[in-house]
Specification:
This protein is mainly beta. A 4-stranded antiparallel β-sheet has the order 2-11-6-8, with no helix packed on it. It has a 3-stranded antiparallel β-sheet with strand order 4-9-7. It has a two-stranded antiparallel sheet with strand order 1-5. The protein is built from 2 helices and 11 strands, in the order βαβββββαβββββ. It is 6% helix and 27% strand. It has a single domain, classed as Distorted Sandwich (Deoxyuridine 5'-Triphosphate Nucleotidohydrolase, Chain A), CATH 2.70.40.
Length: 186
């Protein structure tokens, strides 16, 4: 198994270049064929010598749409109320052309602590190869501490299309037409 194949597994705990550490009985590998519509995401640990303890993104249940992402901070990071902090994950990915990765907040962090992502959803384009970093914001009423290995975001893989634009003088009319914010009432 090579490092880019790790994300083709759904459950368990993995470390780059190592074997599965924990695997539930219901664990099954996801198989791909050349005609499969499921993308293969290649992942790279940027600092394997110090980040081997950080889990790579993974689906926590069999029907999750997002993979939990953990942070690779070296020391605890205090996120004061109203503060924004860019948090490293220690990984980079390679997406197939025609896909993006959306970085979204975790609902538990948002509802319990007011922790969100300032540019939500963040977009990782198919041609980006740098470290994935998460721009957290504390919208809560007290400081929050981010610790090494904390699950801080979700990574959702989506198909994308690059549109062809056509400049016109008028647009087709619709029932809504130019009704903007609040056009349907409350």
């Amino acid at each position: 198994m090579t490092s880019y194949q790790y994300l083709s597994w759904r459950f368990g705990t993995f470390s780059l270049g190592e074997t599965v550490a924990k695997t539930p009985n219901y664990f099954r590998p996801v198989t791909y064929s050349a005609k499969s519509t499921v993308p293969i995401i290649r992942i790279r640990r940027l600092r394997p010598e110090i980040d081997s303890d950080i889990p790579i993104p993974r689906y926590m249940t069999s029907n999750c749409s997002g993979m939990d992402m953990c942070c690779s901070v070296e020391t605890e990071q205090l996120l004061e109320v109203g503060a924004i902090r860019v948090i490293p994950t220690g990984i980079a990915i390679s997406l197939p052309v025609g896909f993006e990765a959306q970085v979204r907040p975790r609902s538990g962090l948002a509802s319990k602590h007011g922790i969100g992502i300032i540019n939500s959803p963040g977009t990782i384009d198919a041609d980006y190869r740098g470290e994935i970093k998460i721009a957290l914001i504390n919208l809560g009423d007290k400081p929050y501490t981010v610790r090494r290995g904390d699950r801080i975001a979700q990574l959702v893989i989506q198909r994308v299309y690059q549109a062809q634009l056509e400049l016109v003088d008028t647009l087709d009319e619709t029932q809504r037409d130019d009704g903007g914010f609040g056009h349907t009432g409350n």
